[in-house]
Design a protein that fits this description.
The protein has about 160 residues and is an alpha+beta fold. Helix content is about 45%, strand content about 10%. It has 3 helices and 3 strands. A 3-stranded antiparallel β-sheet has the order 1-2-3, covered by helices on one side. It is elongated.
């Protein structure tokens, strides 16, 4: 009887450890995918990808928010602005595939990028030290409607 009790306690501990490890691995995979895609977008901005869009535009995701599909630039040549929208649309699609329920915000912010915890507000009160940043967050567990950004990096 005691041996059976010890085996069940050991199995229970092993199962809870496996579940915790899986949750941690999934969280790390989402963070890695979001970071990789954010760095890719930052490189695209640095190489002039947004230069064909409206220069006063702060959040390029606003352009593709309500668009169901964009012109495919794989099979036919595209104008520069159409190609930029095509890239942004597919970048966002890849992010949602790798990081389900992600929230993306691109804005001017003059808070420190390294100062965690992050929030969704963008403090661009006219300071000369503001930078365009991308904020990406996703629900960890529990309430899927209210979660902070998990990642904030500078664009360009």
């Amino acid at each position: 009887m005691i041996a059976l009790l010890l085996v069940s306690l050991s199995a229970s501990a092993l199962i809870s450890t496996m579940v915790a490890t899986r949750v941690q691995a999934e969280s790390q995979a989402r963070f890695t995918a979001a970071l990789r895609l954010a760095v890719e977008l930052s490189d695209w901005v640095r190489q002039g990808g947004m230069s064909v869009l409206d220069s006063a535009l702060v959040n390029p995701m606003d352009l593709i928010e309500g668009v169901g599909s964009v012109t495919a630039c794989f099979s036919e040549p595209c104008q520069a602005k159409t190609a930029a929208l095509f890239y942004l649309h597919h970048w966002r699609s890849r992010l949602f595939l790798k990081v389900p329920n992600a929230r993306i915000l691109v804005c001017q912010d003059n808070t420190s990028i390294s100062a965690a915890p992050y929030d969704w507000s963008c403090d661009s009160d006219g300071s000369d030290h503001k930078a365009r940043v991308i904020k990406i967050g996703w629900p960890q567990r529990g309430d899927a409607s209210d979660f902070p950004p998990q990642l904030v990096i500078g664009l360009g």
